From TrEMBL:
Coiled coil: none annotated. The keyword Endoplasmic reticulum does not apply. PANTHER family: ASPARTATE AMINOTRANSFERASE. The keyword Phosphoprotein does not apply. Pfam families: Aminotran_1_2. This is Aminotransferase class I and II. The lineage of its organism: Bacteria, Pseudomonadati, Bacteroidota, Bacteroidia, Bacteroidales. Belongs to the class-I pyridoxal-phosphate-dependent aminotransferase family. GO terms for molecular function: pyridoxal phosphate binding; transaminase activity.
Length: 433
């Protein structure tokens, strides 16, 4: 151990929660900061999913210019400024190979607001279909959003339902006829698995068959580095359910791909079919029953009244250079993959195993991976790690049914910390003997 057990235990006790796996990501961050302060030991921080790279300089320059031009004084258009809408549509065309127009593209206050609006709108489309179905493990805040709105959800853990097994599992939920939307992220937070084309096809076909909206969270767009998705208009394109169904809402975020988390901007791309579709039940909540009107003028207006004007310029300017092929936005992100490769190798060397792998290929190296240690529950491992100056979050809060796993995020770990990580994992493993 490198940190006194008594110190860690006393600080943890202050949280008034005996089960460490129940702490939220932000609470773990707070606990670890306190341990660092009291012990003087720097942690290997694997708990927070924050970008570890500098923000896009193009975005910063555009944002400054927008402010200098007086835009801070003006409300932005709720549906997005034309520059942003046009560049989002071009981006979808060039990097997803998706035919959408600016009308289908709306900036949101991060992917977070995108999911809030999409989950809420979907749940109001039909009173007989109130349930969102999460394909877990997943990003815990989306479930919090539903809890806060008083909306119900169902979920299942994908671990034992990859590939051909996905069809029947998914259909068993949809057959009940009360599901309005299916929500998942791919690449997946927390496990970094990616749905294969055949799995996306299954999801898309079943969504069409059962008239369900797929809310596909692409917060980690193009970050499956096994392929290069960063060249405009050149295959391969970002895999998506949108290639297999018209019932889609895609959520993208500038937080990770452009390291722009602080300015809170994302993108919502709604299929033309859904954008123009009337759902009579929406009239119980708003003046219009058209989904593509309900989302911006009903939900976005009532929550933030649009997305920050200058951030929209930042996003639009960045997308423009990316769309014009002047910058390969994916290349700089490879730094995450490199760190994941090194870190996974260290964990495997000291007896850990990866909990979630990919279906038919080696798991990609990216932003997150999941680890477990034989015969330790996730709570035991998470706590034990604190004594060794390592922090991670439990899979228990992600809807995982696996009792042993932790999520490791690579973004905050520096390359110069790899040696320290190895020393600590070695000491940890020796203590387990
Ligand atoms: C899967 C997923 N969706 C959405 C978000 C939130 O993104 P944003 O910062 O754009 O709100 C995150 C952030 O970690 C995420 O992991």
């Amino acid at each position: 151990m490198i940190i006194q057990k008594e110190l860690v235990d006393a600080l943890f006790a202050q949280f008034g929660e005996s089960d460490i796996t129940r702490l939220s990501i932000r609470e773990v961050g707070k606990l670890v900061a306190q341990i660092e302060k009291e012990s003087g030991q720097e942690f290997i921080h694997m708990e927070m999913g924050v970008p570890g790279l500098p923000a896009s300089p193009v975005a910063i320059a555009a944002e400054k210019e927008a402010l200098d031009n007086g835009l801070a004084a003006q409300y932005p258009n709720i549906e997005g400024i034309p520059f942003a809408k046009t560049e989002i549509a071009r981006f979808a065309n060039l990097f997803i190979n998706l035919e959408v127009s600016p009308l289908n593209c709306v900036p949101t206050v991060g992917g977070m607001q995108g999911s809030f609006a999409a989950l809420l709108a979907a749940a109001r489309t039909n009173p007989d279909k109130p349930y969102t179905l999460f394909i877990d493990p997943g990003f815990p805040v989306q479930k919090s959003q539903l809890h806060l709105m008083g909306l119900p959800f169902k979920s299942f853990d994908i671990l034992n339902f990859r590939g051909d097994k996905l069809h029947d599992k998914l259909e068993s939920f949809l057959k009940e006829g009360n599901v309005c939307s299916i929500c998942y992220s791919s690449p997946n937070n927390p496990s970094w698995f990616c749905f294969s084309e055949s799995e996306l096809k299954t999801i898309g076909e079943l969504a069409t068959k059962y008239d369900v909206i797929v809310i596909e969270d692409l917060a980690y767009f193009a970050m499956d580095f096994r392929q290069h998705y960063g060249t405009p208009a050149v295959a391969p394109f970002q895999p998506t359910v949108a290639h297999y169904t018209d019932n889609y809402i895609l959520l993208l975020s500038a937080s990770k791909i452009f390291s722009y988390a602080g300015q809170r901007i994302g993108m919502m791309i709604t299929s033309e079919k859904l954008r123009t579709r009337r759902y009579p039940n929406l009239k119980n909540y708003f003046t219009s029953d058209v989904l593509g009107h309900f989302i911006p003028y009903g939900v976005l207006y009532a929550t933030t009244a649009g997305t920050s004007h200058s951030a929209q310029y930042a996003l639009a300017a960045t997308l423009k250079v990316v769309n014009d092929g002047e910058i390969d936005f994916v290349k700089v992100l490879h730094a995450y993959g490199e760190k994941a490769r090194l870190m996974k190798a260290l964990f495997l060397k000291y007896g850990f195993y990866i909990v979630y792998n990919d279906e038919d290929r080696e798991l990609a190296d990216g932003f997150y991976f999941t680890i477990a240690y034989p015969n330790l529950t996730s709570g035991e491992l998470m706590k034990e790690f604190l004594y060794y100056g390592i922090s991670a979050i439990s899979l228990a809060i992600t809807g995982s049914e696996n009792l042993n796993g932790l999520r490791a995020c690579v973004s905050f770990v520096r390359l110069d910390q790899m040696e320290v990580l190895e020393e600590r994992l070695k000491a940890f493993a020796e203590a387990q003997q």
